[in-house]
């Protein structure tokens, strides 16, 4: 942890994410002064000012409030998607690498099939098939990232099962499931943590792309991607409607990427001794 | 060794065929999960007004009265004979649509990769030439930006800025293929290719930097320098030449991003490529189009991955020599 604190990337990433989290939580608790959805036509296209920090949009809604709610929605979808992918993918990778045999073949086959699709295309097709709400969007994104976690964990598990203390645990007569969770899993946590951070940034980008294409959380729920889509034609009337959600989505992804880079630099065993 | 290599490639090809079969099953099942079918998609709510006899006739016409397994193999068999289905909306066969859209996306992909290499490799080498200096920081900023700015945001911004500030909006008019009007075509392709290229320049930059740093510390580089090989030749022939393997691998890996990003970028710049074909199919609920097009894209993706694998064996001197 202290090594992480010395990584400028991890520190700046954390600062950005904490700031955005505070804003999103305020929005979730309804502590921001405006409503993200209710329309207020007399106040359309107000430029940024003291009362409307990021101005107002074509329906007179406060852009700051909508961006805050959008960050919350994006983060919620990304976190749920990555949590699902982490659990399912890690379990798949553990079973695949530790039990080998038929389970390995079956999981490997499914993984290869999912890897045969360009990630965004797979998410897009799944999202178009499922009924549209925030949860199904998260599921669509999760399915795309499950095979990544399978592949990332399977390799290390394969080599861990040949290591002395795991063999010793087998000799003491512990069950395979026990060994898998008690002796193998703890040794791959740093790999999983790095992958989680990187996947979160991709998940945010994917969610934003889906809602930009009209396949994300349905309106009027504020989403950064659909806000940018709506702002396309308003760029010259009210540039802030594009700049605010655009800058915030970039900031969110930058924060996650910086944290991911910092984690990789400090946790990845291949980088140890280099600093 | 030759027999072994052939064996490897044969095994890889067999695995690929199995994967593609799985992909076909997946696509088929996925699109069957949607409520409704070709009939409701074509007629909308009016489908409810059909008499049972009309309903049965239409089901027979679309083959929907067959068991699902039979429907699947009928579709797959048709794909092999070039019958990809029919787009009622476009009054065209999906094969014709695909034959027109696939080359457009292929051109976009090639241009994007060229731009990405032109941005990523020199910046990566520059960053590696003095680690932790200002030039290294520049590389880090560029790659972080490439990884963090969504393609749709960059595309939207470039489109508006160029149209408004420079009056440059070649995508506002009808699309011209490379054969029809090469100059207009390239003008229409430059911004989309730049957006996609910028996205994949980031991983290429990072890989180049890491690979160059690693190769530079190898003994043979020191030996070459001691022998008096000129610095420029040393950097290009010895260092970059040996760093090429991870760079090519990384570039190949970005193809998936490229095909997915093509959906977004083609839509924004009105480029009639295969990504737009899928998206239009989804929006117009033409599942025959979506089903066959997604399979074609997955096929292209898998083939490119296979090609990257082979290519990397060809350029890696260690694999070649052993």
UniProtKB/TrEMBL annotation, chain A:
Its main location: membrane. It is found in: Cell membrane. Gene3D superfamilies: MetI-like. Keywords: Cell membrane, Membrane, Transmembrane, Transmembrane helix, Transport. Residues 71-260 form the ABC transmembrane type-1 domain. GO terms for cellular component: plasma membrane. The chain crosses the membrane at residues 9-32, 75-99, 106-127, 133-152, 184-205, 237-260. Coiled coil: none annotated. It comes from the Bacteria. GO terms for biological process: transmembrane transport. Pfam families: BPD_transp_1, OppC_N. InterPro entries: BP-dependent_transpt_permease, MetI-like, MetI-like_sf, OppC_N. CDD domains: TM_PBP2 (cd06261). It is a multi-pass membrane protein. Signal peptide: none annotated. Belongs to the binding-protein-dependent transport system permease family. This is Peptide/nickel transport system permease protein. The lineage of its organism: Bacteria, Bacillati, Actinomycetota, Actinomycetes, Streptosporangiales.
TrEMBL record, chain B:
InterPro entries: BPD_transp_1_N (IPR045621), MetI-like (IPR000515), MetI-like_sf (IPR035906). GO terms for cellular component: plasma membrane. Pfam families: BPD_transp_1, BPD_transp_1_N. Keywords: Cell membrane, Membrane, Transmembrane, Transmembrane helix, Transport. It is a multi-pass membrane protein. GO terms for molecular function: dipeptide transmembrane transporter activity. Residues 102-308 form the ABC transmembrane type-1 domain. The chain crosses the membrane at residues 12-34, 108-129, 141-166, 186-205, 243-269, 289-312. It is found in: Cell membrane. Belongs to the binding-protein-dependent transport system permease family. This is Peptide/nickel transport system permease protein. It comes from Nonomuraea wenchangensis.
